């Protein structure tokens, strides 16, 4: 049974959701964009197109976030001026902060300014875009400014140089339908409707299955000094394309769903983000904060080396351990978002999960299991210690391994 305190907080959440007047975090730029067209206008929008273009997985994520307002205040793909401004200054031409460029790419020489293109994805007609800008970007400058390196060892540098086309294009977008995904991605408006009114909403971003240490981290974040009582945490994993060796989105989604049922924590909200990771460290931290602000969050948990990556040759990190945290803190007030540092959590035989400083001060015996060792144990069918991973999550991962074999 829930304690009287838990029951009271649950009642507060329920009554808040039922409220008609919502007092939630203002979206970025103070306007939650919605580019989806009413049914009565969709046929005319399609008929007005002169070209058709099939989207990549990454571009489809961008189209979806544009259409539902995840990239508010953008109303389409950035034109050349907006692109250059974001690359050079991390700001839109209006002066508003924005972490990374959002552009449509092509190798098609014949597309020209003024063309209206029907954007398709896996047989769906997702959106239209009216091209108002087409240019050949300086990708080495984009790489250095946005990712801090021009080395193709960096996954985003590899992406812009080897996956993206020769040209970038900008233009206003009209949404027709959202991608049919194996995992549902609630829109910012949907998520906002599920949030309690007038309380802090702490966002937890991840791109991997959630283990015990992660769970301890984001539930403890609700008690951080700068988080008010009665707060909730939005567990908001990215389920779009990430790094090649990451667990597939559908498998990650299944682990989240079973964990949601297992913990049944009334202080948590769960939603999934159709976002394509860039592993851009500090710039990505800003991008994630802006997106989560649009989904109604007031706080963002930011970990050591957030969205970082390593050289595949030297093994060296592309970013400093605290670069993302420092950049986020520097811009937090301007963004209207507060940061919650990710605690360094460790498991001890004597006291279970504690912070690393407590473990050191009390000379507690720490148990550790590396990600590599965990994956080896999974593949080998060995028992996974429950202090490390949830049984429900392990079951899904074992099933996916069996299916792959």
UniProtKB/TrEMBL annotation:
It comes from the Eukaryota. This is sulfate adenylyltransferase. It is an enzyme of class 2 (transferase). Residues 26-177 form the ATP-sulfurylase PUA-like domain. InterPro entries: ATP-Sase_PUA-like_dom, PUA-like_sf, Rossmann-like_a/b/a_fold, Sulfurylase_cat_dom, Sulphate_adenylyltransferase. Coiled coil: none annotated. GO terms for molecular function: ATP binding; sulfate adenylyltransferase (ATP) activity. The lineage of its organism: Eukaryota, Viridiplantae, Chlorophyta, core chlorophytes, Trebouxiophyceae. Transmembrane segments: none annotated. It holds the Pfam family ATP-sulfurylase. SUPFAM superfamilies: Nucleotidylyl transferase (SSF52374), PUA domain-like (SSF88697). Keywords: ATP-binding, Nucleotide-binding, Nucleotidyltransferase, Transferase.
């Amino acid at each position: 049974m829930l304690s009287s305190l838990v029951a009271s907080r649950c009642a507060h959440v329920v009554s808040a959701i039922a409220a008609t007047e919502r007092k939630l975090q203002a979206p970025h730029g103070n306007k939650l964009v919605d580019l989806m067209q009413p049914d009565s206008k969709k046929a005319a929008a399609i008929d007005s197109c002169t070209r058709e273009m099939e989207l990549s997985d990454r571009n489809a994520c961008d189209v979806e976030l544009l259409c539902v307002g995840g990239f508010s205040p953008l109303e389409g793909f950035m034109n050349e001026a907006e692109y250059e401004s974001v690359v050079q200054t991390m700001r839109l031409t209006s002066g508003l902060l924005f972490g990374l460029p959002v552009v449509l790419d092509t190798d098609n020489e014949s597309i020209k300014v003024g063309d209206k293109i029907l954007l398709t994805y896996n047989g769906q007609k997702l959106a239209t875009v009216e091209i108002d800008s087409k240019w050949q970007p300086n990708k080495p400058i984009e790489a250095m400014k946005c990712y801090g390196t021009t080395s193709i060892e960096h996954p985003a540098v590899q992406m812009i140089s080897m996956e993206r086309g020769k040209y970038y294009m900008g233009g206003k977008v009209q949404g027709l339908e959202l991608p049919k995904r194996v995992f549902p991605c609630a829109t910012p408006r949907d998520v906002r409707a599920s949030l309690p009114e007038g309380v802090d909403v702490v966002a937890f971003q991840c791109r991997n299955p959630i283990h015990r240490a992660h769970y301890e981290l984001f539930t403890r974040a609700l008690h951080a000094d700068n988080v008010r009582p009665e707060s909730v945490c939005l567990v908001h994993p990215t389920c779009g394309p990430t790094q090649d060796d990451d667990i597939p989105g559908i498998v990650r989604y299944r682990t989240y769903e079973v964990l949601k049922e297992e913990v049944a924590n009334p202080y948590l909200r769960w939603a999934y983000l159709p976002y394509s990771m860039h592993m851009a460290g500090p710039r990505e931290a800003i991008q994630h904060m802006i997106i989560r602000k649009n989904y109604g969050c007031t706080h963002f948990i930011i970990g050591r080396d957030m969205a970082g990556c390593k050289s595949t040759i030297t093994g060296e990190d592309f970013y400093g351990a605290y670069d993302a945290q420092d950049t986020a803190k520097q811009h937090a007030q301007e963004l209207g978002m507060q940061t919650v540092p990710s605690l360094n959590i460790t498991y001890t035989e004597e006291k279970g999960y504690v912070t690393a400083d407590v473990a050191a001060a009390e000379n507690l015996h720490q148990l550790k299991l590396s990600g590599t060792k965990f994956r080896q144990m999974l593949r080998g069918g060995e028992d996974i210690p429950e202090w490390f991973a949830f049984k429900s999550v392990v079951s899904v991962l074992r099933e996916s391994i069996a299916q792959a074999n």
